[in-house]
Amino acid sequence: MATMHMRSWQEAYRGVMPDRVLDDPGLIEARERFWTTALVDERHRAKRIAVAERDGAVIGVAMAGPPENPESGWSQQLYVLYVLAAEHGTGVGVALLDAVVNPHETVVLWVADPHPRAQAFYRKHGFLPDGTSQVEGGVREIRMMRVTPDPTD
């Protein structure tokens, strides 16, 4: 999972994220710690994690769960959704999104800006920018939200 996560970052963020971050020899160990914590730490118990494989190799990962700020106004946050570039357009990203996000709840995510391919993917699946942005690790990100329609409307 960590190796695939690192490779997808290198594929997706080259030119968006500083090369020193993407080429840092410690990046794989940092991703290993991230996934170990996500999988075994009690604080992450409510999060859903999905892995996509092809021929025994991890080709995509996703993680969603309750927002870090419970007063946020949404019920879920998509924290991770990465698919190797060779698998773009195969349906792997959609399957991972569907595996970790409940379609009947309001969901938010942060996505790099600019990152036209990822933003288009999320727009196609009902996410819209809500006007909020931040800079995280030297990368500008915008927040996108998918609001579930009220069934009584």
Automatic annotation (TrEMBL):
Keywords: Acyltransferase, Transferase. Signal peptide: none annotated. It comes from the Bacteria. CDD domains: NAT_SF (cd04301). Residues 1-149 form the N-acetyltransferase domain. One of its GO terms (molecular function) is acyltransferase activity, transferring groups other than amino-acyl groups. It holds the Pfam family Acetyltransf_7. This is GNAT family N-acetyltransferase.
